[in-house]
Every structure is written in C-alpha cells, then in structure tokens.
Design goal:
oxidoreductase, globular, LeuB_actb, alpha/beta, cytoplasm, binds 1,4-dihydronicotinamide adenine dinucleotide, amino-acid biosynthesis, 340 residues, branched-chain amino acid biosynthesis, binds magnesium ion, Isopropylmalate Dehydrogenase
C-alpha cells in the first residue's frame, strides 16, 4: 500500500504518529511518503498545495491527514486553498462519517447502545461548490449570492453509494435528510433520485426526514437512523451533532472518498489542529485510528479494519473514567491490541 501522509499543524502530527503506529502494526507492508502542507509551510514559503505535490498525491492508494490550521493564518486560506482544493481536485464526492456510541464513552447520551449510524454526505456540490459572488460590494445595494449546485450525476452517485452501504449493513435502512418543503428544486431532485435508486435495492427500507426534525431525533431518538444520505451543507451540520452525541471530537472519523477509485481517497479525524493543547501530549488519537479503520475498509481490507475497531472498542470500555491518557500511551495500547 502506498500511503501519502499529511501530518499538518498543531496536534495533527501527534495523532498521525499514533495512527501510523496502529496501521503499520496491522499492515506491515505500507510505503509511506510524508508531505509538509499546512499553516507552517504557508508561513515559510507562501505555498498551499503546489501542483507538483497534487500530482504526487495522485500516485498513492490513499491519503492520511492529521489537521491543518493555526490562529496566525486568516480564516479561509487553508480551508479553500488546501482542504477544499484536495477534495475537489481528487473528486472526493462521498464524505463518509460514521457515528457509533461505544460502551464506556461519556457524553450527553452515554450508554445509548442504539447509536450506530453512518452519514453519507455529498462532498463536491451543494452550497460549497463556490457558485455565487458579491455585486455592488460595500454599497447599501450590495447583493450576495451563494448558489446550491445539485446535479443529477452528483446526487445519483452519492445516493447509490449510500444504498450500497445500507444494503451491506444489518438494519438495511436509509434516511434521506433534506428540506424538500422549502428547498423545493434541489429537494425534488434528491427525492426523485432516492426513489429511482431504491428500486434496485428492494431490501433497503427508505425514510425521509427534514433537516430540522432530524436534529431533534438525533438527540431524542437516534436509534431510528442507520444510513443517512444528504447534501453537503446538511451533512456538515448533521455530522457535528452526530459526533457530539457519540463521544465527541476525539472520536469522530471521516473519509473523503472518490468511490469510482480514480483518485486516492483521504482519511482524517474530523477535529482540527487544536492549538490550545498542541505539544502537551494530551490529544486523543482515537479519531485518527478510527479513520485508519475507514481507510482499511476502503482499500478492501475489512478484516484488518474490524481488528482496529475491536481494539478501539476494548480500549474505550476499559479506560479510566474521565481520563483519555497520554497521546502516545493510547497509541501504544491500540497498536498492541490491534496487532495481537
Ligand atoms: P479543533 O477541533 O481544533 O478544537 C476544538 C476543541 O476540541 C479544542 O478545545 C481542542 O483542544 C479540542 N480537541 C480537538 N481535537 C482533540 C483531540 N484529538 N483530543 C482532545 N481534544 C481535542 O477546532 P478549532 O479550535 O475550532 O480549530 C483549530 C484550528 O484547526 C483552526 O485553525 C481550524 O481552522 C482548524 N481546523 C482544521 C480542520 C481540518 O484540518 N480538517 C477541521 C477543523 C478545524
Ligand atoms: Mg464541520
């Protein structure tokens, strides 16, 4: 396996080091190339994502990213110039974010064994496509438009992937989350595509939920969800709440997938570079290790992925209440559990 690693800034390198410990324990034959991208490179050289680096990234089987960002970089520069650019250039159209509440994990819904869902968020369209602009800027007549782009092609491939995932899961249940009553045009397209694709998956039960109601149910009745399919913006919101009710930021993993496998997919913890705790050795690397499990699944190594997940489940169930432990100690424990 040829893996490109972008450790990034802040706690990024710290959690990535532990993730790689676990990965190389499970799959010894990994060929790793490390790329220096993020806030520190931007400060040093003004570069965000040189074309030569993008070309090299394409030559790998997958990418592992820690986190990028620093308070000294103006908002938006790294997000647009690096993270979103990678997602668009490598056509990461499925943003995959599982949320499962493991036994032993604290949080607002601790102990709720029914939380085991996966959000399939569209990753390259919606309001994030960059269609829009400002007219008559800095005048009382200023106009700002932010157009949500929804193509049949873009919606269909994401909906299809969500059905495939639902069909492989025990519950075989899929919920479309949207706001079809108000966002009627895109809502129609999404609903129609879900209906169409559902014909090919007769074993999958289909439900629909408005985004606002979904936010209530995620807290009051999360067990109703199995696979959620949704657009880019709603998916961004849903996955933060799903993370909050399933153990928080230290446990939220994600995959930015090109499910056509033309380009390498990218796996990363949902959290950022956490400058407030960087260097203290207290960052929880579990979200990064869970992202490694997603990576192994994507590359067709489900047995290894299950071993990594089982290691995490065991570790979470046996952690000292209220204490994560040192970053390296968690990594050592998970690596030992996963490779034993
Ligand atoms: P953040 O996720 O970095 O931190 C939020 C809070 O959660 C902080 O109190 C932090 O200490 C804590 N936290 C985060 N990850 C943790 C972990 N693994 N273990 C224990 N505690 C953890 O979000 P914030 O503070 O809004 O952003 C910090 C920087 O990260 C910004 O520059 C932001 O732009 C960037 N960022 C980068 C992302 C990425 O690379 N994909 C995603 C989100 C933010
Ligand atoms: Mg977010």
């Amino acid at each position: 396996m040829k893996l490109a690693v972008i450790p990034g800034d802040g706690i990024g390198p710290e959690v990535v080091a532990e993730g790689l410990k676990v990965l190389t324990g499970v799959i010894p034959q990994v060929e790793i190339s490390t790329y220096d991208l993020g806030a520190s490179r931007w400060h040093r050289t003004g570069e965000l994502l040189p074309d030569s680096v993008l070309r090299e990234l394409r030559g790998h089987d997958a990418i592992l990213l820690g986190a990028v960002g620093d308070p000294t970089v103006p908002a938006g520069i790294l997000e647009r110039g690096l993270l979103l650019r990678i997602r668009f250039e490598l056509d990461h159209h499925v943003n995959l974010r599982p949320a499962r509440l493991y036994p032993g994990v604290t949080g607002p819904l601790a102990g709720d064994q029914s939380i085991d869902l996966v959000v399939v968020r569209e990753g390259t369209e919606g309001p994030y496509a960059g269609a829009g602009g400002l007219l008559r800027k800095d005048s009382p007549h200023e106009i700002a438009t932010e157009v949500s782009v929804n193509t049949y092609f873009g919606v269909e491939r994401v909906v299809r992937n969500a059905f495939e995932r639902a069909n492989r899961r025990a519950r075989k249940h899929l919920t479309l989350v949207h706001k079809t009553n108000v966002l009627a045009y895109s809502g129609q397209l999404w609903s129609r595509v879900v209906e169409e694709v559902s014909m090919e998956y007769p074993d999958v039960a289909v439900a629909y939920c408005h985004i606002d109601a979904a936010m209530i149910y995620l807290v009051t009745d999360p067990g109703r969800f199995d696979v959620i399919v949704t657009d880019n913006l709603f998916g961004d919101i849903i996955t933060d709440l799903a993370a909050a009710v399933s153990g928080g930021i230290g446990l939220a993993a994600s995959g930015n997938l090109d499910v056509s496998r033309t380009n390498p997919s990218m796996f990363e913890p949902v959290h950022g570079s956490a400058p407030d705790i960087a260097g203290t050795g207290t960052a929880d690397p579990t979200a990064t290790v869970l992202s490694i499990a997603l990576l192994l699944d994507h590359l067709g190594m489900p047995d290894s992925a299950r071993r990594v997940e089982a290691a995490i489940a065991f570790d979470l169930a046996t952690r000292q209440p209220g204490s994560v432990g040192r970053t390296q100690a968690v990594g050592d424990r998970l690596a030992a559990l996963a490779s034993s």
